[in-house]
Amino acid sequence: MRRANRGLIISADRPDEGGQPAGGAASGNADRAARARAKAAALARFRLASPAHLLALGFGSGLFPRAPGTVGTLWAWCVFVALEDWLAPQHWLLLIAASFLIGVWACGRAARDVGVSDHSAIVWDEVVAFWLVLAFLPTDWLTQLVAFALFRFFDIAKPPPIGVVDARLKGGFGIMFDDLLAAFFTLFLFAIWRAAGF
Length: 198
What we know:
The protein is mainly alpha-helical. It has 8 helices and no strands. The longest helix has 26 residues, at 89-114.
């Protein structure tokens, strides 16, 4: 889904009547830093407010202030590597299917509670979709690194039909489904690569 980084705490610089932030530049910078800290604290409290929030925010990986979707995908990669020797391929598929269904509920609930259709901190969609990519690829790190880069490209750039789905599908299913399309595009490119004999 197209990310919006609103909700929870929405604040802006409030200039005085002269058009400058009250107290000058130093005061404005301090105010912005204080608001950033307050927003981070509010997100942390939001994460713990319910199991749905904890899951939707990728167990905290979505709280990273920069590129939370990328951080959530990295977290998914680390979890996959940690569990790949313990779970057979069919178990991964069952886990991914269950995680998708639960994610529809959790991401929908979190989006409703935060008041934004797809807040940037909601990263469970990236987690589940990237697990799907990794489940169908070789386990060498170079292949997985290329898959990571391709998946992030498709998720961010949203070429058609991903962008169309992102714009039209709302709620928890919409949040989860467009990332599945990004996973499909990633796997499709690998299939073409293999078919070409590389």
